[in-house]
Design brief:
mainly alpha; 7% strand; 75% helix
Length: 198
């Protein structure tokens, strides 16, 4: 169940008790950091739920699966190893089973999930930037290098005829490369449109 209030309502209620806006803001920030509430554009959403071992185990399992996939994709990311340690700590708290330990486990799991989301967002932005650079390079290649005309070599000398034969082969290879580059640009565009929303 979730209860919500506006920040102004909380200021009024707590102001009647003698608390200043600054004190209320500090309390809200502390509750937000601990994961008891969520602040969203002037609204305070209070999480009211009874934590249980099984729910937290399922949450832990889901986060661990996602984190394992990320570790396999990015084996040299030390930050992901730190998150695995955080999950181990959360698991130890879950095993204790008392309310305070379950609360600590839930906060660690939420922090871990938030860090994973941030990591994925950063990696997605890096990927989009890299894809954009690849696309620009392919466009430059097709525009500058693969669009040059190879001048026909004429003459009655056998040497000129052979050179022109090689020119014809180069034109075929150039056209093939241009077609491949255009195809790659299409694939990059498809990736950008597919993952561009991340």
């Amino acid at each position: 169940m979730i209860y919500s209030s506006t920040v102004n309502q909380i200021y009024r209620i707590e102001g009647r008790k003698g608390y200043t806006k600054g004190e209320v803001d500090e309390a809200i920030e502390l509750l937000d950091l601990r994961g008891y509430i969520k602040r969203d554009s002037g609204m305070i959403l209070e999480k009211v739920q009874k934590l249980d071992v099984e729910t937290l185990r399922l949450k832990l399992y889901g986060i661990r699966e996602g984190l394992t996939s990320l570790c396999n994709l990015f084996p040299n990311e030390n930050g992901l190893n730190d998150l695995q340690v955080m999950l181990q700590e959360a698991e130890a708290y879950i095993e204790k089973g008392d309310e305070e330990s379950l609360d600590s486990a839930d906060r660690r799991l939420d922090n871990c999930l938030s860090s994973i989301n941030t990591f994925v967002k950063i990696k997605s932005e890096d990927l989009m930037r890299d894809l954009g650079e690849i696309r620009r390079n392919l466009e430059r290649l097709t525009r500058d290098e693969l669009s040059r005309d190879l001048k026909e070599i004429s003459g009655n000398v056998q040497f000129a005829t052979r050179i022109d034969d090689y020119r014809q082969k180069l034109i075929k290879h150039r056209d093939l490369l241009r077609g491949n580059a255009q195809s790659l640009i299409g694939e990059v565009d498809a990736l950008i449109s597919k993952f561009g929303f991340v």
